[in-house]
Amino acid sequence: MAHGVTDEYKREYFDSEIELEKKLDQLAQWISASKHFIVFTGAGVSTSTGIPDFRSGMDTVLTTGPGAWELRDNNSARPKNAKVLPDMNKAIPSPTHMALVELQRRGILKCVVSQNCDGLHLRSGLNPTGLAELHGNMNLEICSKCEAKYLRDYDTGIGRRDHLTGRRCDKKECDGLLKDSIIHFGENLPKSELSKAFEHADKADVCLALGSSLNVTPAADVPRKVAERKQKLIIGNLQRTALHGSSLLNIHTFTDTIMQGLMKRLNLPIPTWIVRRRIRFQIKNDSKNSYQVLIEGRDPDQDLPYSLFKSILVNIDNTELKSETSNSKFILKEEPFGFVADIEDEKSTTKIQLQINFFGHYNELPYNLEYVLQNIEDEFYLFYNPRTGVWLRKSRADDVTE
Fold first, then answer.
1. Is residue 62 assigned to a domain?
2. I need a labelling partner for 348 at 20 to 30 A (CA). Which of 11, 70, 207, 297 fits?
3. Residues annotated within a binding site
4. What is the value of pTM for the model shown?
């Protein structure tokens, strides 16, 4: 028995084509008429991206193969033909993720409550004000002292039970130890996220639970709350769930199939996913001929520091740099990405050239910048389509052109 799930709840079901059409018609009608629609997501919304779930049985139809706990309980290795990403940071949000983004943009979807820690909901473009990540986010770490948050374009978790990442808070007055935000079994869920989830559960008239066994509490108490309030709970999952009997509608098929069918009935597009980056650049004239340069990443949707750069190649004309290198061309390899440069003539038009190198999870090309060395404050957004390999620079976060 895989972590409390019997064979009965590992068996997979598929609705017939006729059954599925009727159920999706009904789902679309309920959502169209809803006043407060929420979605609850589990690992099943990410399996199509190459991230395995936890509880799927040894004979699952999923291309990712059996769940992690199922393999452990059966002392088995993952099948060689399983399609699994070696790095979750490389996962491209699924049609389900992107459909939820569109529904949120349209004001139809009020909140996504998620058990997932893969970071895909944020990466997909979902606005964090309408997202409650109950089990944490692999790309988020939090200061243990002042609770400041930092997003990273890499996995912050290193498996320690004390969650310490080895990094410290950027705030000089704090310098607290940073911890990953992953919630291990037996640990308390973050109060702010849990409160947000239940606030929406108390308002919801329609709740769609996708890709979850609904077996882990207190997270599963969110959709249960909706059902207890006699509001509409709909469950989309290959297996029967712990709330099967409480649901008005149980849809047995892949979550992507459900969301693609739903969006078609709502006459709404599923947007193409692109990489979104926000960059803040600053040059300050500290003294007569001395300039302080700072380059940092920020989250596109909230004012949080975001570690986006693997390195930055710097080239400055005719300067004497206050750095370990003696020439005007050097590489910044760690945060903070900044340096001080002295110039001989304060009236000169010395130029600074930067080659920003990203972590390259999606084969992002380097991006080049050029500025005159003078007082500057600049902030802009970069959008990268992995399918075309092209960066687009924009001044607004919502100015997305594919």
1. yes
2. 297
3. 143, 146, 169, 174
4. 0.92
Binning pLDDT at 50, 70 and 90, where does residue 1 land? Answer: very low
**What's the chain's length in residues?**
402
Annotated binding site for Zn(2+): 143, 146, 169, 174
Whether residue 216 is found in the same domain as residue 116: yes
Q: What is the mean pLDDT of the chain?
A: 91
Peptide bond preceding 336: is omega within 30 degrees of 0, i.e. cis?
yes
Active site residues: 135
Range of the domain at 326: 275-394
**Total domains in the fold of the chain:** 2
| Co-location of 190 and 60 in the same domain | yes
CB atoms within 10 A of CB 59: 10
Closest CA to 220 of 196, 189, 203, 242: 242
pLDDT digits (tens, 9 = 90+) for 270-287: 999 999 999 999 999 877
* 132 and 223 part of one domain: yes
